[in-house]
Write a structure and sequence with these properties.
The chain is of the alpha+beta class and about 375 residues long. It folds into four domains: about 60 residues; about 130 residues, Beta Polymerase, domain 2 (2-Layer Sandwich); about 100 residues, no CATH class; about 50 residues, no CATH class. Helix content is about 50%, strand content about 10%. The strands form two sheets. It has a five-stranded mixed beta sheet, covered by helices on one side. It has a two-stranded antiparallel ribbon with strand order 6-7. Helix 1 runs antiparallel to helix 2 and helix 1 packs across helix 3.
Length: about 375
């Protein structure tokens, strides 16, 4: 199916309004559009609110069939109600955690909806991610269990120790309890600084803690890379963080953080793609100064070709980013090739082999 027109439309809707973007959007809407497919794409990329904005404006909405306009508005209303309910659920969870002297950091959707989007309803989310200090993880789990949540069995695609998903038996939004921010299979070196440099924000009148600016940018870049650049809403998160706070970013600190965590490739490529997709105005030279990594660059170009990502057709390749010496060489080599901290990984690999815990083969997910 050739859906290039619909994907380009969705991309234009995700960009910030300006005369050039508006003119392109007007011409794209005047062409033949598969509206059912566009609605489906908007849903999969988390951009139903942005689509609703477009079809609700007189200048553009006339291009959409009335049934489509009604469908999109009803879907958006349902998503708005769900988001409001999730804010309430999260506030209750945070109250419980804080009463137990757990210091939670709110990740991704709720924090970004409350701080960088002009209307929180423009940032939809379906689960709730909370980061806790490792030594408070057991206490946090006790709080969630006391509130009616139960830990879910881990998927074979997930690596042990990254997070635990909690769900109520009656349903509702899952809570993902994290102890590791970047989830790459190595200890996060900046972990202590996350709480020291965290920022307070208001979430529907409820005070909460989110990542500091440079840690937020790094996390969003790594998260996008980990998920194969598959959803446009995650690019939009990063786009708005940078547009709102570009003058406050300490770029040398950000680059140093990325180098320390072995994710310089994630930072540079994600920011470069962001500028290409959403025309985010990045300062001159912000992508310079990275140490070159020919091996990682070559592997990245094969696994995530720019033309594919530009068509909004990224692909998740977890084992190419996450290092796990307990799941066989097929789940070790890709991360060694693509990502940084190779000496540390080789040392862990040697230690694991001495303990004879590495199987010869593994049926883990493919690269």
């Amino acid at each position: 199916m050739d859906d290039a027109a619909e994907r380009q439309l969705l991309l234009l809707m995700a960009r910030e309004p300006d005369p050039e973007r508006d003119d392109k959007l007007r011409h794209a809407l005047a062409a033949s559009v598969d509206w059912d497919h566009l609605v489906s794409l908007a849903g999969s990329h988390g951009l139903v609110p942005q689509l609703t904005q477009v079809v609700s404006e007189a200048a553009w909405g006339a291009s959409a069939p009335p049934p489509v306009i009604q469908q999109v508005r009803m879907l958006n209303a349902a998503l708005r109600l769900r988001a409001n309910a999730l804010f309430g659920v999260l506030a209750h969870v945070l109250d419980g955690l804080e009463a137990a002297n757990v210091q939670p950091i709110v990740l991704k959707g709720p924090a970004l909806a409350s701080t960088v989007y002009p209307d929180p309803a423009l940032r939809m989310f379906s689960d709730l991610d909370v980061l806790c200090p490792e030594d408070q993880f057991a206490a946090a789990a006790t709080v969630l269990v006391s509130q009616g949540y139960r830990a879910q069995a881990q998927s074979e695609r997930e690596q042990d120790g990254f997070h635990v998903v909690y769900q109520r038996e009656a349903g509702g939004a899952p809570i993902e309890l994290h102890s590791d921010l970047l989830q790459l299979g190595l200890p996060t070196r900046c972990i202590a600084a996350l709480w020291r440099e965290g920022e307070r924000f208001e979430m529907g009148g409820h005070p909460a803690l989110m990542l500091g600016l440079e840690h937020q940018i790094l996390h969003l870049c790594v998260h996008l890379h980990t998920h194969g650049y598959t959803r446009l809403i995650w690019f939009k998160d990063l786009d708005l963080v940078l547009r709102r706070r570009i003058e406050q970013v300490d770029w040398p600190k950000l680059q140093a953080l990325a180098a320390s965590e072995g994710v310089s490739l994630s930072l540079r490529h994600t920011l470069s793609l962001l500028r290409e997709l959403l025309e985010t105005p990045l300062p001159a030279g912000c992508l310079a100064g990275f140490a070159r990594d020919p091996l990682g660059e070559a592997a990245h170009a094969v696994l995530w070709p720019r033309r594919r990502v530009a068509r909004l057709a990224g692909k998740q390749r977890l084992r190419s980013l996450r290092f796990n010496p307990h799941r066989g060489l097929a789940n070790i080599v890709p991360s060694l090739v693509v990502m940084g901290r190779r000496r540390e990984k080789l040392a862990m690999l040697a230690a694991a082999r001495q303990r004879r815990v590495i199987p010869a083969t593994s049926s883990g997910n493919t690269a």
